[in-house]
Amino acid sequence: MLRSIPIALSSCLLATTAFADGTHALHQSGAVLSGANAAVRADYDILAAHVHRDGATLTFHMTTSGKAGASRPASTGAMAGSRVETYAWPTSLDPSTVGFEQKAGILALVATVHPDFDDTPLFDENNDGQLGNDGNVWHSHWVVLVPNEACGKGALAVKDIPAGTRPPLPRTWPGVPVLLDSPGYSPVFDGPEIKVSVPLDTAEAPEAMAYDGVTAALKVNANVHAPLLCITDVFDVASGNLSLPGRLK
Predict the structure, then answer these.
(1) Mean local confidence (pLDDT), 135-164
(2) How far apart are CA 30 and CA 141, in angstroms?
(3) For FRET with 134, which of 52, 83, 174, 245 sits at 20 to 30 Å CA-CA?
(4) Where are the alpha helices (DSSP H) in the chain?
(5) Closest Cα to residue 227, out of 151, 176, 164?
(6) What is the mean pLDDT of residues 201-230?
């Protein structure tokens, strides 16, 4: 299964086939390709999404029209009502693959940034010796997405954990009342591309995994729960319709 325990990724683990122009996904057979869209902010305008396996590592790539990771949401000064921006790879993997309850929803890997709170309590992303002030540094999560009408008609949200319950959770769950894991996989930016490398157990590699690419913004509910995190703006979807046409190579 995919590992969801704290892992310090070495440079060799992050190494993948490199292209001088930093556009790995565009060059890969089976990548989900998307035409440029001038109406979408360039750093969130998806040109391609691709996932590949290299030995004991699964690497998620996304190529954009602009410089990936260039933007960050403005701070509001409080977690309630604040904004989160993401690069996301929705997958066909069952959430139990990383430690959540079976068939809980859509499992997605996300790279995210949010200046008003920190949800990676095990990691010091900005290397200042403090674990609780790193939300404004790009970091990764596994999240489980479900439809939630409280977020709007047809909208998706990170699945809430009802008060007083404790479903199965990964070991690196950060303690927030949603199905969100903070495994510590470091996003790497290279011009128009972002990639996130995920270690896995080779005996249980998800060879039949389907995937897509999405850029989006979420908002923290003013009540900070039920729902906690709603997807409020979808910037771009690689397939155009979230059909998960990509296949793991």
Answers:
(1) 95
(2) 24
(3) 52
(4) 11-14
(5) 151
(6) 85
The C-alpha atoms of residue 184 and residue 14 are separated, in whole angstroms, by 13
Q: How far apart are CA 29 and CA 41, in angstroms?
A: 26
pLDDT band at 3 (very low <50, low <70, confident <90, very high): low
Dihedral of the CA atoms 197, 1, 105, 124 (nearest 10)? -40
Residue, of 19 and 104, whose pLDDT is higher: 104
d(CA 37, CA 46): 8
What is the identity of the amino acid at 107?
A: L
Report the amino acid identity of residue 134. Answer: D
Question: Rounded to two decimals, what is the model's pTM?
Answer: 0.88
The predicted model gives 70-79 an average pLDDT of 93
3-state DSSP assignment of residue 210:
strand
Cα separation, 132 vs 184, whole angstroms: 14
